[in-house]
Write a structure and sequence with these properties.
With about 110 residues, this protein is mainly beta. The protein has no helices and eleven strands. A hairpin with a 4-residue loop joins strand 7 (about 70-75) and strand 8 (about 80-85).
Length: about 110
Amino acid sequence: QVQLVESGGGLVQPGGSLRLSCAASISIFNINVMGWYRQAPGKQRESVALFITSGGTTIYADSVLGRFTISRDNSKNTVYLQMNSLKSEDTAVYYCFVNEPPTWGQGTQVTVSS
């Protein structure tokens, strides 16, 4: 059973930055899809940033392009999400996800407010 543990959420002012971490209990080296989703109150869960290993690509939501950066450290089985220039509309619970097997983390709250 895969476990994903997120950390790094919190309260930040508009324009600020946060870095989220997701530590996996298994090797992430060969996982095909891994990354971050988010869910704001009253809204559907949406993808934010994903690694697609088979295609050697990363996919970002249009709303975060140029502000968020996904990265990974295979030696630590950890994926990161660097979030800069945060906006109030980025407020949500952020979830880590892997597709092999399909697994979600417990979520970490990000609140952007003055």
